Amino acid sequence: MKYVDEFRQPELISRAVNEIRRLAGTDRHYRMMEVCGGHTHAIYRFGLKDILPENIELIHGPGCPVCVLPMGRIDDGLSIAQCPDTIFAAFGDMMRVPGTQGSPLEHKARGMDVRIVYSPADALKLARLNPDKHVMFFAIGFETTAPSTALVMMRAKAEGLRNFSVFCNHVTIIPAIRAILDSPDMRLDAFIGPGHVSTVIGCRPYEWIAQNEGKPIVVSGFEPLDMLQSIVMLLRQLKAGEAKVENQYKRVVPWEGNRAALRAMAEVFQLRPYFEWRGLGFISQSALRINEKYAEWDAEQRFDVPGIRVTDPKAAQCGEVLKGVLKPHQCKLFGRECTPEHPVGALMVSSEGSCAAYHSYEHRKAAMVSLSSIV
Amino acid sequence: MCLAIPGKIVEIAADNADSALVDVVGVRRKIDLGLLHDDRPVPGDWVLIHVGFAMSKISEHDALDQMNTLRMLGEIDGAMQEVQGYGLEETDDFELLDDVGLKHLDIKDAKVN
């Protein structure tokens, strides 16, 4: 285990923890959901749970786009890429995610032309470099990534590049939060809001959570001090009986978001009436599809998509873990049938998924960076 | 997936105002400025980069902070691999992926205590 030499301002960390302890008291329990998978990863890596008082419980939310993607969508995307002279392009995160017939990496081993790209712009570049092939970009991500996909499609249309399409799996964070709040077995007090999604959407879209649901939300950075300060801000609101949106991550997140990015999304996408989330089921208006203007670059409008639906194994309790009803290790499959190497359920497939994070840091005690010696 | 990587704009392409050369701890790659039309960066500015696109302008101080965050999170290798891959520079890197897949979960340098 590494210790604290990498933490700057240890005195501030210590002060924040003391303030959390003072505010939290002992008379009640606080349940806070961090929405973003990046925060989940950070919470485990820094062992935040070990330094927080026992009556503060962090629930890991649905903010890992790889984890919430239904297996049927992977099958659908790979089925389109079975067409001759087709290149399947996707981010590295997708390569090991299993479909019913195997992951993209396994399809590559069987002869499919599968390429890793680090940017949607490079999927477009692949299409320019391979005019005799069709390049299908398997797009995933929340609002952080969706504007880049949109801009690339605008470029493809402007160039008249017809050997390029996007299989769109972009999802939006707000409806997922709403679905969680609507769930009858879900009791939450407050939210730690996503950092990088908010650089695009800003802080305003969260206002309904505060106003209509009466839940405080603080948009947070990813360092231990950021998250501890966000918890202080949430506790102060809860103690004062307030519910408002606050921005702890002002150094990166503008209140109004990125309007140019939102314009690009509005140009290319429209809301799907509903979309399936692994572990959560169908959520209305929770994902983006490509609109009519860009139909020619939409793999779903251009090709036959089988529309495969795969039910997650009944034994996997991803939904309960996602909603915080169960902790990762309380799932029957955790660490046995379901591991990061052989994921059965959604939350084990990416390092940002709560089960994978729990497995690496709690179960295997991997390279944790402990805060406990400074508080 | 949600890495935000700080980089310094070195140069903006003469023939394409949306294409910039950035420096990320010594690695130079082209990135896209198309999502910063409302607040165009100039050479010397720092930006946060996500999947090859500049998402926001930030101060130098915050850029260095962000690099430190990536380091603390154990994401620096993943971030550098992403940047190096921009422009299809290392696309056929499935061997690397093996490596990174493990690193990403911090299994390789795991120490059991």
Protein described:
- The complex is a heterodimer of chains A (375) and B (113).
- Chain A is of the alpha/beta class.
- Chain A has helices at residues 10-24, 37-45, 48-51, 65-68, 71-80, 104-109, 120-129, 146-159, 173-182, 196-201, 207-211, 224-240, 259-268, 299-302, 318-322, 354-363, and strands at residues 30-36, 56-63, 86-90, 113-116, 134-141, 164-170, 190-193, 217-219, 245-247, 269-271, 274-277, 281-284, 288-290.
- In chain A, strand 11 and strand 12 (281-284) form a beta hairpin.
- Chain A is globular, with a radius of gyration of 21 Å.
- Chain B is an alpha+beta fold.
- In chain B, strands 3-2-1-4-5 form a five-stranded antiparallel beta sheet, sandwiched between helices.
- Chain B is built from three helices and five strands; from the N terminus they run E-E-E-E-E-H-H-H.
- Chain B is globular and about 35 Å long.
- Mean pLDDT of chain B is 82; it is low at 91-113.
- Chain B has one domain (5-104): SH3 type barrels (Roll), CATH 2.30.30.
- Classes of the chains: A alpha/beta (375), B alpha+beta (113).
- At the A-B interface, helix 2, helix 7, helix 8, helix 10 and helix 13 of A face strand 5, helix 1, helix 2 and helix 3 of B.
In short:
The complex is a heterodimer of chains A (375) and B (113). With 375 residues, chain A is of the alpha/beta class.
Helices and strands in order, then pairings?
The complex is a heterodimer of chains A (375) and B (113).
Chain A: H1 10-24, E1 30-36, H2 37-45, H3 48-51, E2 56-63, H4 65-68, H5 71-80, E3 86-90, H6 104-109, E4 113-116, H7 120-129, E5 134-141, H8 146-159, E6 164-170, H9 173-182, E7 190-193, H10 196-201, H11 207-211, E8 217-219, H12 224-240, E9 245-247, H13 259-268, E10 269-271, E11 274-277, E12 281-284, E13 288-290, H14 299-302, H15 318-322, H16 354-363
Parallel strand pairs in A: 1-2, 1-7, 3-4, 3-5, 5-6, 7-8, 8-9
Antiparallel strand pairs in A: 10-13, 11-12
Chain B: E1 5-12, E2 19-24, E3 27-32, E4 46-50, E5 53-58, H1 60-72, H2 76-85, H3 94-104
